[in-house]
Design goal:
Layout: H1 2-17, H2 21-37, H3 44-59, H4 63-80, H5 86-102
Length: 106
């Protein structure tokens, strides 16, 4: 349910801070799976979890996967919160960093 998914997302953030990236990735992915199962995959908190997982994947050098997640997060944020929201700016900034790391300008 939603509370469990939110708790997993928070735990994923803590695990990232502890540099336990494999556990964090697994935990964040489980949170996202639950969101999708219960129909919360178009909410801003789901986008925040996508963003968190994308940042983790970027650190691991998995730029293609990070880009995909960031684009999905940005789409959700722009739809739910608007293009001018600071979360949209944060996602655009992170997306730019990932694209630069990939050496592409798309």
């Amino acid at each position: 349910d939603y509370a469990y998914s939110a708790t997993l997302a928070a735990l994923g953030g803590v695990l990232i801070k502890q540099d336990r990236l494999s556990e964090a990735e697994e935990t964040l992915r489980e949170s996202l799976r639950i969101d999708e199962k219960i129909g919360r995959n178009n909410y801003a908190d789901h986008a925040a979890t996508l963003h968190e997982l994308a940042a983790l994947l970027s650190v691991k050098g998995e730029y293609g996967a990070a880009e995909s997640l960031l684009r999905k997060a940005l789409e959700i944020i722009e739809t739910t919160l608007g293009q001018q929201h600071r979360q949209a700016a944060t996602s655009i900034h992170e997306l730019a960093r990932v694209l630069a790391a990939q050496g592409t300008g798309r």
